[in-house]
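From the pipeline queue, job 12 of 40. The input is one protein chain; the requested action is below.

Action: predict structure.
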Amino acid sequence: MLFSFNEKSVILLMFFVHALVFACLLLVKGIRYSSASDRWLSFFMFLCALYIAPFMLGYAGWYSQENYRHLLFYMPFQQLFLIPPVLFFYMRSLLDKSFTIKKRHLLHFLPAVLYDLYSLLIFICDELVIGHSYFYEDGRDKDFAAWYQVAGFASMFVYLFASFVIYRRYRHYVFASLSFAEAVAYKWAERFIAALLVLLSLRLAFFIINPEWGEFGRKFWYYVCFSVSFYYISIHGLVNSVRQGVPLHIFSRASGSMLQGVLPGIKTEPEVNNSDTAAVIPDKVLDIDPEELALWKERINRVMNEAKLFENPVLTIADLAEKLAIHPKKASQWVNLGFGMNYNDFVNSYRVRSVLEKMERGEADLQTIIGLAFDAGFNSKSTFNRVFKKSTGLTPREYMAKLQQK
């Protein structure tokens, strides 16, 4: 089978092969470790390989030969209605390990299915019914029709926005529920959304610069930029699959739905608990009694100090609520109102105070500062340094130097 090796076809061929390799690696990893996010990312890599395939094959001379061209025009290589929901569900499964596809989620794939059926119907009509290229007599690939490209762009924008909304809700949620939020805030999720924004910006830029999407020779640099972007996603996505944090469903005691109303068919149901402490708590506490608030502050302080809960590196709002015998959402509200900070910052303030007390007592002479931090409940050096400087205005080393000067 002819393949013309030239500068343009070879560059796209390398990205094409790498996309397939990463798709296989992620699929194997996803199956072996039952990781839905890896499987979704594997699917995305495969779709990226298909996305650049027509231009790779075009530069390789396939579309200039009647036998190949006749068949390739019927192939829906550019799955513009399928890529956006796949990326969205990757983000969804990345943030929530308990997430599983349900029947209602299949609606997100309906446009892609309809487009593929449309492509199949055209093939059947031209090749089996009419016997000649009636629908393709203009010699232009339907994947590059203006309506399809614009609709695909709009779909990508909608799902990118939905992914961003979900990540923001997730981030707010974990900082309100966990004392180790930094460990599961998924910096990769932020970079992933940024990479998708780059892809979307590239498409918009090339829409404006050169709207003729069916012209093979005029889109090479767009597809190179696209390939570099998905190559970045594939590498970091594979690395991230090894470093993923805790599943979101362990926080279900603390909240109900995180994703309600983001997109049709995307919702989660809170677990049902019949205990008295699982009563529904409104999002806002109205008419707070200052005396009651002061009592709760004192009680929370006493529990935190006497039980030294902050020394637990994986302390959650549910753990504190259990000690207080109240609903986790109520505990979160008392922390927010009484101490003016989210739960993550609240617990870290106790940890910093513990480290400072030990440093004042000279324990840093017997143990490293990071050792003191880990004993106080911090689970990473970077988090400790950031929180310590935010609290004291000095780095741990600068603070120690100041103490030694006294």
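Job complete. Residues 146-177 form the longest helix (32 residues).
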